[in-house]
Amino acid sequence: MHIVDTEEKRWLQRRFESVRSAPDFSADVRKHVLERLSAAEGLENYLASKYPGTKRFGLEGGETFVPMMDELIQRAGGYGTKEVVIGMAHRGRLNLLVNILGKNPADLIDEFDGKKVIERGSGDVKYHQGFSSNVMSPGGEVHLAMSFNPSHLEIVAPVVEGSVRARQDRRNDEEGSKVLPINVHGDAAFAGQGVVMETFQMSQTRAYKTGGTIHIVINNQVGFTTSHPQDARSTEYCTDIAKMVQAPIFHVNGDDPDAVLHATQVALDYRQQFKKDVVIDLVCYRRRGHNEADEPSGTQPMMYAKIKDHPSARSLYAQRLVDQGVISEESAKAMVETYRDDLVAGNHVANALVQEPNASLFVDWAPYLGHEWTGDADTTMDMKRLQQLAARMCEVPDGVDVQRQVAKIYEDRRKMQAGGLALNWGFAETLAYATLLDQGHPIRITGQDVGRGTFSHRHAVVHNSERWLYLCAASEHGRWSAAFHHS
Question: Where is the Dehydrogenase E1 component domain (predicted)?
Fold first, then answer.
């Protein structure tokens, strides 16, 4: 095991070895997994029959991704999570939008038919679109937000992390227990794009950490037409990049929904326990070409000869449950028929979708739309209040011994505040921050030298020369109104 922390290793060993990696799930749980698998496969089959050859970047071969996401969201809600932010590329996005986030199938069909009128928005293709909704969980309502993402695959990962960190900061969620980031990757992009490493590198820094991210790799073992590992990467696994932060990596068979469910539960529990990133490598396959207009057997003839005769994950699992007496064959077939009937009728097919969501869980963007910037903002400030703020920002608490040159900067600022010296840039900039904070606007500045300032002009953070302690010049009574992160 590449993890060096003893507590983490023992925790993982207990979770897997106690059940020999084969937990005994109840019949109801397994029936629910089959129902979600039927939904995942049902949508793909419906779209394939109605729009053959039309690009949708389907999930066929990796359908267990849908029950995995369902379990993640419901289990996170049980932990008290209020928001889940999801980033992913186009593979399986339409399936997730309809079966998990609750996009109305009728709206998706209108997009395929070209009937949807775009009054405002990007006009981008349907498998790049974002979405948001609320679902009910054992712990209450959970807001789901899927980020928009172009066909630049991994670029959405740091965007999701930034969105999550902002939501956590607004909620004063320092541990990251209320907002959960989930980033979904493809095996080729996960191993091939540098932004993946950069996002991992920031995952535990004070400026950017989010309490751990759930990474899911839909590992269909082929990137467009590249399938040989020696052409795709220089590592044993596509997920080896995650070892740099000692993230646990669970390789799980996409044709074994029980194993997928177990890995999903352990992954989320680990994240909640240790507040670190964790990776699920969902080893599956791609039943069709890179898109539905491609013919993959031209470049992978042997692979696709096997895939052609391979039963779907849903078929295999349904047969297993029938053989074990968990469900009757008629009930399993009824799930398929019921789902297709709902699709044809245009009914919502996502479980636990909240029709009248709690408005406090999400941001209403409507007031921000349709405005033009006029430049007529009132930036005046009361002189007396400015002087009070200037005096406060020049204070260094008793007992804090600052370095000689820094002390001189603060001494000069006190003279500026009193009118004895002309204001310099550092004083004016810090005073500008103070006015924003005074009006209730939080400030966040990040970078390697933002506390001091590149030209030694800011010194918004002072360091005690006698013992390790740093103070933000804009803080009050120990409360961090402004955050200057050296990373």
Answer: 82-342
